[in-house]
Amino acid sequence: MKSAVLPPLRVDPEIRKQAEAVLGANETLSSFMTEAVQLHIQHRRAQHEFIERGLASASAAELSGEYLSANTVLQKLETKLSQAKSLRTN
């Protein structure tokens, strides 16, 4: 597949300096920026999927009339966290 070009990116010289300072061995600024764009795309997709799941859950709860209180949800999460911590220490 033919490669494409992203628009030129104008940044403050300090940002460029910081980016160059964290480059790995044999890593170019271009490869760093490409990876950053890919990671941000993944992050945005995960955000959108999270929101979609939340909206679907809200719709399902509205249709069924079954809701959980915030306290119930927090208690369940605390229980899961406690179980995970106990498994970790064993």
Task: Please give a quick description of this structure.
This protein has 90 residues and is an all-alpha fold. The chain is built from 3 helices and no strands.
Describe this structure in words.
The chain is built from three helices and no strands. The protein is mostly helical and 90 residues long. The N and C termini lie far apart (50 Å).
What descriptors fit this protein?
90 residues; mainly alpha
Topology:
Elements lengths: L12 H9 L7 H36 L5 H20 L1
Q: How would you characterize the largest beta sheet?
A: none
Task: Give the DSSP E fraction (strand runs of 2 or more residues).
Answer: under 5%
Distance between the termini: 50 Å
**What is the quaternary state of this protein?**
single chain
Average pLDDT confidence is: 95
The Rg value, from CA coordinates, equals 22 Å
The H-and-E topology, N to C, reads as HHH
**Total beta strands:** 0
Principal-axis shape equals: elongated
Percent in helix: over 70%
Taking pLDDT < 50 over at least 5 consecutive residues as the criterion, the unreliable ranges are none
How many separate helices?
Answer: 3
Structural class: mainly alpha
